Amino acid sequence: MANSKYEYVKTFEQTTTLLPNTYIVVRVDGRGFHKFSTKHDFEKPNDRAALDLMNAAAAAVMKELPDISFAYGISDEFSFIFERSSRLFDRRESKILTTVVSTFTAYYLHLWSTFVPSKPLTPLLPSFDGRVVLYPSTQTMRDYMSWRQVDCHINNLYNTTFWALVQRGGMDVTKAEEKLKGTLAADKNEILFSQFGINYNNEPEIYRKGSIIFCDVSYPYHQEVPDPAALAVSKNSEVEISKTQKEKERKRRSKAEIVVQHTDIIKDDFWEQRPWLLCGDADR
Ligand code: ATP
Ligand code: ATP
Ligand code: MG
Ligand code: MG
């Protein structure tokens, strides 16, 4: 950039650098999606096409930012979890946050007509806010993921019962709200089963468990037989990974399939079966 007498204004800029060796979590959330979903006639309680669109936008973000190792989405929100050792944008908070939010929003708009072809987008247009949270250990990061999945369960059980009362039971919304006030999970399960013959456990997993997206590197991983421990060490160390190694890793990731699953991420099984998700994690 050319020098000028105005250059000094740059000294007013403030940057927050995210702590090293911590999990960076960026959570994006739709702004005013209660209103947005009404305006665009989302099916209640769950519009499947809208969820598929969220997942597709999240997968696109992950393709563009390979330092994201997995993402978890429910309703109008998505959490993106970066590798602990990520050096993306020198870990500058504003660059990371704004890039994730704007890339997600751009793909959401771009893919809208593919997923919701019958409803053209008109203002009110969708927009998303975002925040960054740092988690210092695998335990806290996993507790964060568990928190979001528990939220998914609580909200979905409530919404499923609420909308059954309204849509199938002919109740008005105020009455349905009153009926559900102070009820426990067992009460809602009972209402669903006895009044509407719905077994909540048979509801689609995407609604009950949310969506987890990650690179399924298991196949090339085993084929090339890289030593996960060595990879973890090299990612954590200050030693610059050689260009060829970096290129190999980039190719391996770009070949790997991005998968969407609707599964339990609270129990250990999910993480034990996919060790590469926590690769580069010193305290695992
Ligand atoms: P804020 O701007 O504070 O986030 P909001 O209106 O977006 O406000 P949220 O708590 O984020 O509030 O809730 C999102 C709302 O969007 C849900 O309560 C639901 O009404 C609606 N929504 C999001 N996704 C779907 C979907 N796939 N199907 C049906 N409704 C949805
Ligand atoms: P970064 O991601 O770090 O911002 P960048 O490639 O966007 O990288 P900038 O410093 O923001 O770098 O510069 C933007 C570049 O985009 C310009 O150097 C120029 O090459 C190009 N550019 C932007 N707007 C125009 C335009 N209207 N016409 C032609 N080129 C443009
Ligand atoms: Mg919202
Ligand atoms: Mg939300």
List keywords for this structure.
GTP-binding, alpha+beta, magnesium ion binding, single chain, binds magnesium ion, nucleotidyltransferase, 284 residues, binds adenosine-5'-triphosphate, Alpha-Beta Plaits, 6 strands
Describe the biggest sheet?
Answer: 6 strands, antiparallel
Helix content: 40-55%
Query: Overall pLDDT, averaged?
Result: 90
Sheet with most strands: strand arrangement:
4-1-3-2-5-6
Helix/strand/pairing category: alpha+beta
> Can you tell me the number of structural domains?
1
Indicate the CATH class. Alpha Beta
Ligand list: adenosine-5'-triphosphate, magnesium ion
Q: Tell me the number of helical segments per DSSP (H or I, 4 or more residues long).
A: 11
Question: From the alpha-carbon coordinates, what is the Rg to the nearest angstrom?
Answer: 22 Å
Task: Please render the helix and strand layout as text.
Layout: E1 23-30, H1 33-39, H2 48-64, E2 68-74, E3 77-82, H3 93-115, E4 128-135, H4 138-168, H5 173-180, H6 185-196, H7 205-209, E5 211-216, H8 218-224, H9 228-236, H10 243-255, E6 257-261, H11 269-273
Antiparallel strand pairs: 1-3, 1-4, 2-3, 2-5, 5-6
Helix pairs in contact: 2-3, 4-5, 4-6
The chain binds adenosine-5'-triphosphate (2 copies) and magnesium ion (2 copies).
